[in-house]
Each structure stands twice: as C-alpha cells, then as structure tokens.
Amino acid sequence: DAADAEKGGYEHFMLKEIHEQPKALRDTLTSRLYDDKKEIVLDKIKLGKEELDKINRIYIVACGTAYHAGLIGKYSIEKYARIPVEADIASEFRYRNPIIDEKTLLILISQSGETADTLAAMRLAKQKGARVMAVTNVVGSSVSREADDVLYTWAGPEIAVASTKAYTTQLACMYMIALHLGMLKGTVNEEELTKIQESLKASPEMVEKVIKKESAIKEFAYDKFNVRDVFFLGRGSDYYASLEGSLKMKEISYIHSEAYPAGELKHGPIALIEEGTVVIALCTQTELLEKMMSNIKEVKARGAYVVALAKESDKAIEKEADKVFYIPDTQDDIAPIPTVVILQILAYYLSVARGCDVDKPRNLAKSVTVE
Ligand code: G6P
C-alpha cells in the first residue's frame, strides 16, 4: 500500500531514517563547510563578531532528543568558543526564572519547531531582550519564524516518533555553531579547526561504516531482547551520547534503561548491578579511556555483562568487555555521531524482537504541541 511505498522497501520508517543519515549529514554539512576555505558559512545566522562580543552567557534549550543534542552543543561551544553555556530542558528553564538580558544568547533546538515548552522558552527569552538562534528541521515552523537567526538541519521529513536523523544532523549543526562562534571569538586555532572540520566532513562515511554492522547488532539484540534493565555508562561526550542511546531504548523497546556518568557509578547504580545485568559502556573518549576501563572492571566484578563501544584502534577493550562494537577512529568530539547510530540500530532491533510498534510507540507523540 501507499505507506509501504513511502517506507522505500524498509520495514519501518525508523529503519529507513537510520539509513538516510549519511545523506542527511551530507546535506546538512556540505553547503556550510568549504574545502578550499577555512570558513563555515551558516546561511541565516547573522550574528556577527560585534554582537557576539556583547554576549556573556548562552543557554541551549530544548526537549527530548533535541536536549541531548544541546548537551553536546554546550560541551562544544564551551570548548571552542570559551563562552559559558548552560543546557536546559525547556519545561524546566521556563519555570525557574532564569537570568536573561540583552547579553544572553538563547539557542533553541527543535526538530518540529513547534514544541510547546520550547516555544514558550523562546518567547520568554525574547521578551527579556535575549538574542535567539534556532536549529530546526522545519522551514516555516514557529521557531524558524520567530528566532533572530536560524540554522536548518537538512534531514528531510522525519516520520518515526523516535528521532534519529534529526538528532545526528542537530549534532552536526551544534559542532558548526561551536566552530563558527570560536572563529568569531578567535578562540579556536587553525590546527584544531582543520582537525575537527576533517572529521565532520568524514562523519557521513563513518555512519555508512557503522550501518554495515547492522546484522551483527541485530544478532546481539535478538540474543538479549529479554533483558529487563540496561545501564549505560559514559564520560564526557560519551555520557551525553549514552543519554540518547538510553532514551531510544526505553522509547521503542520499553526496556527499563538508565544512563549514568560513569564516575557516578559508586554513588548509586552499582547497587543495582547483579549477575547478568547488561551494561553498555561508551569508551570513545581517548583521555577518559583508562577511567572507563576501571569502571568496566568494577561492574564485571559484580557479574555484569558488558557491551563496550570504542574506537577501532582501541582493541585493548576486548580484554575487559564481553562484547565490543567499534566506531571508526575519529576526532573525539565527533564520536557521538557514529556511536549513537549503533545505539539507534540496537534499540530498533530490540523493539522488533520484542514485537513492539517501532514507529508509533505507546503514549508518545512526534511533536508535543500542548504542555
Ligand atoms: C517528542 C518527540 C521526540 C523529540 C521531542 C522534542 O518527545 O517524540 O523525538 O525529541 O518531542 O521535539 P522537537 O520537535 O522540539 O525536537
């Protein structure tokens, strides 16, 4: 029927959209990153050096998956532009009397551009004189019309309730914004810029490579689909990526999952580790790898079954983990892009194996336009 035709041969929209990510990333990145110039051209972003110099605080505000992209945005903007950034959930931000004035930049992330709490946060900030920049997937959406600056994710229409290609393209936009602000500020050096730009340009290819592992991930999902609880652990960007992996899993497979910064293990979640508990350990951050290795040892000693995600060349992880899925070697900041794609595929096949309605999970909506 018509719906099947729209799925382009895939069983579900979610799987189709997972596979569309290399193209979505290319479309989002290529018109903005140039090969010949060390320049990033962000179409509708008019915020220039003079305006940016007046900004002393940035808030990134969003809901759900978009908020998870915002956390990576915070990390990247602070690293490259050295401006203090707070990432907040729109429904929390709007009710906590946040400190906003003309020196505030509010960055909103919203796939639909219509989420009620995100719109309310935008209007509150504008009223108090903040400049508003929006990252959205929908041209003509409320957010795109009301923001001062707009950067589109060129993901194309996203039908599945669980967001995939919108998220990875939001990440691409957050990296580009971070570099752009860093260049305006003069806080990012040439060498750093080249390295991260090269990795960003390579990200569609990295995603193609991890998608090739689909059948191995599927096999693993079919083996473990009966699991009751899953704990995700990570540090730095890996922690932010694990929040998204955990959300995907609970949304569509209804498996109870939690994501924890690995350093917090001893402050709670370790009490819940018993024989056979599945722990997914994200280990892509070079400087934090040793720390993650010790966390893996700690949960293994209590009987956990550990699945690690790591960079291809970090083979030592095989000595500690029960199962490893590799991402291509990359600049650490960009690692969440291929990492999350593995977690999307895992959540997808867990959902299929458990007989859930992948594209329309119970109680969830694609766009939450009422509070
Ligand atoms: C709903 C969707 C999520 C999405 C969130 C924010 O919960 O199911 O996939 O991340 O809303 O939506 P937005 O359109 O603002 O990105």
Automatic annotation (TrEMBL):
Transmembrane segments: none
Parent-record interval covered: 239 to 609 of 609
Catalytic activity annotation: D-fructose 6-phosphate + L-glutamine = D-glucosamine 6-phosphate + L-glutamate
Assigned keywords, A-Z: Aminotransferase, Cytoplasm, Glutamine amidotransferase, Repeat, Transferase
Name the record gives this protein: Glutamine--fructose-6-phosphate aminotransferase [isomerizing]
Subunit structure: Homodimer.
Gene from which this protein is expressed: glmS
Chain ranges of the SIS domain: 48-187, 216-361
Entry's Gene Ontology cellular component terms: cytosol
Subcellular location per the Swiss-Prot or TrEMBL entry: Cytoplasm
E.C. numbers: 2.6.1.16
Single GO molecular function: carbohydrate derivative binding
